[in-house]
């Protein structure tokens, strides 16, 4: 990737992040990020272009931090607002009045102007640090459970020595505070399964490469994981015949690794697990771009807290709100439609989501054994662990962490980005 400054109109200079991609014998230059007007960016970050160029050379994923966090906070703001959605009259004035690419792309400026909408935390900018809602003791527990290089008490000591962490305490209400994380060096690898074709979407390209804003679904998903302070690397499992990944922004990031997948999803998961270098792993679907950073943190803390209670891992879930009906088996020989056999008690029913979080060696062993005995039952990683007799924790997360499977799902994601993340 490289930085380009150009003047598309009105004599103003705008900053773009681009990538060179080889297409046959030719080199194609694609825009992977638009940062906004140079003059305004320099007011916020003196030497912006030089800093950005250095980050490109380092393969830093923080190049994309501001949009991801802005989107997450927009979602949260909408969910906790008195109205059901962020109406157009609630959008920043700059967003409403923008009538050309430069104004609409100037995300950093609008972030600063809309900071008053987020009273509990500072504006999220390009060079911001990771955020957390765990207390010092809770962050210490997560690091102790999953970080092989953890030194007991190191986070508590770090928090005590850092004057800027005065707002971080172990009081009961501090866990809901959004503040800078004490953990900045990841210690968990994540596997993202992106080798499928998405037949139900009916699109010309695999669904993970469908565009959302200026990036595809896969880019949004992987970048969201990279923003998490707990993730060390993201291993993306793609099809051996994949012709689209090279056009994403992910290929130049030093914490992204690609491996070829297998025939079925479970085979692709195994391919990814073989590349994992950490004792624990998160397995995530490429088509879940709306996973919350704080839900990921909640999953890790819940599993860490449950290790001494017999749990061998956990998954994110959401409660089932609809009434559930068990259907009869439709006849294959007639046009008979299935009928309701009974109404199912939904009080114990949850929708399984990802990430799903387990020890690497336990998961590999469980999958391999399940493939020999009950391959038809392996619909996700947890199902293999269940067959092995492992106790899997259910950690309730946001219902917005749904899987983009059909055209209606894609429409919903685009609507959320439009209304819930005005700075996106």
Biggest beta sheet summary: 7 strands, mixed
Q: Please report the distance between the alpha carbons of the first and last residues.
A: 21 Å
Helix content: 25-40%
Instruction: Give the mean pLDDT.
Output: 83
Low-confidence spans: 85-123, 168-175
Task: Order the strands across the largest sheet as they lie in space.
Answer: 10-9-6-11-15-12-16
From the spread of the alpha carbons, the general shape counts as globular
Structural class: alpha/beta
Strand content: 15-25%
Q: How many H/I helices?
A: 14
Radius of gyration: 23 Å
Total number of beta strands: 16
**Series of H and E elements:** EEEHHHHHHEHHEEEEHEEHEHEEEEHHEH
List descriptors.
424 residues, alpha/beta, single chain, 14 helices
Secondary structure: elements and pairs:
Layout: E1 2-6, E2 14-23, E3 26-37, H1 38-44, H2 48-58, H3 65-79, H4 93-97, H5 101-105, H6 107-113, E4 131-132, H7 136-146, H8 154-161, E5 179-180, E6 188-194, E7 211-212, E8 215-216, H9 217-227, E9 231-238, E10 256-260, H10 265-273, E11 280-285, H11 293-306, E12 313-319, E13 324-327, E14 340-344, E15 350-359, H12 360-373, H13 381-387, E16 393-396, H14 407-420
Parallel strand pairs: 6-9, 6-11, 9-10, 12-16
Antiparallel strand pairs: 1-2, 2-3, 4-5, 7-8, 11-15, 12-15, 13-14
Structure description:
By secondary structure, the chain is α/β, with parallel strands linked by helices. Helix content is 33%, strand content 21%. It is built from 14 helices and 16 strands. Strands 10-9-6-11-15-12-16 form a 7-stranded mixed sheet, sandwiched between helices. Strand 2 (14-23) and strand 3 (26-37) form a beta hairpin. The longest helix has 15 residues, at 65-79.
């Amino acid at each position: 990737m490289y930085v380009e400054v150009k003047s598309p109109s009105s004599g103003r200079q705008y900053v773009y992040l681009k990538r060179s991609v080889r297409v046959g014998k030719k080199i194609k230059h694609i825009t992977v990020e638009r940062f906004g007007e140079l003059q305004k960016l320099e007011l916020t970050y003196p030497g912006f272009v030089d800093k950005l160029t250095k980050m490109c050379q380092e393969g830093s994923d923080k190049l994309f931090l501001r949009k991801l966090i802005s989107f997450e906070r927009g979602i949260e703001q909408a969910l906790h607002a008195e109205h059901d959605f962020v109406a157009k009259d609630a959008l920043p004035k700059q967003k409403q009045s923008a009538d050309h690419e430069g104004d609409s792309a100037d995300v950093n400026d609008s972030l600063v102007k809309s900071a008053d909408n987020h009273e509990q935390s500072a504006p999220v900018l390009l060079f911001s640090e990771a955020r957390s809602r765990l207390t010092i003791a809770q962050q210490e527990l997560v690091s102790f459970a999953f970080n092989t290089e953890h030194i007991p008490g190191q986070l508590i000591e770090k928090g005590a020595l850092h004057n800027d962490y005065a707002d971080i305490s172990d009081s009961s209400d501090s866990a809901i505070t959004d503040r800078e994380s004490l953990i900045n060096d990841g210690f968990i690898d994540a596997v993202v399964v992106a080798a499928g074709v998405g037949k139900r979407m009916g699109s010309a390209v695999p669904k993970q490469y469908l565009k959302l804003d200026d990036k595809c679904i896969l880019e949004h998903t992987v970048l969201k994981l990279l923003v998490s302070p707990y993730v060390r690397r993201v291993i993306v499992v793609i099809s051996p015949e994949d012709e689209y990944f090279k056009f994403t922004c992910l290929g130049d990031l030093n914490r992204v690794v690609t491996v070829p997948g297998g025939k079925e999803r479970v085979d692709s998961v195994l391919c990814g697990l073989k590349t994992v270098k950490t004792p624990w792993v998160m397995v995530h679907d490429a088509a879940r771009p709306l996973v919350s950073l704080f839900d990921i943190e909640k999953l890790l803390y819940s599993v860490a807290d449950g290790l001494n209670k017999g749990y061998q891992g956990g998954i994110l879930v959401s409660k089932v709100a609809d009434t559930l009906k068990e259907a009869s088996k439709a006849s294959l020989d007639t046009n008979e439609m299935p009928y309701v056999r009974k109404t199912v008690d939904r009080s114990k029913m949850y929708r399984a989501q990802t990430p799903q979080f387990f020890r690497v060696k336990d998961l590999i062993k469980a999958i391999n054994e399940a493939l020999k005995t009950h391959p038809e039952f392996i619909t996700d990683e947890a199902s293999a662990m269940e067959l092995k007799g492992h106790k899997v924790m259910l950690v309730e997360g946001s219902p917005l962490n749904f899987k983009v499977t059909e055209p209606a799902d894609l429409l919903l994601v685009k609507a959320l980005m439009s209304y819930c993340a005005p700075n996106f």
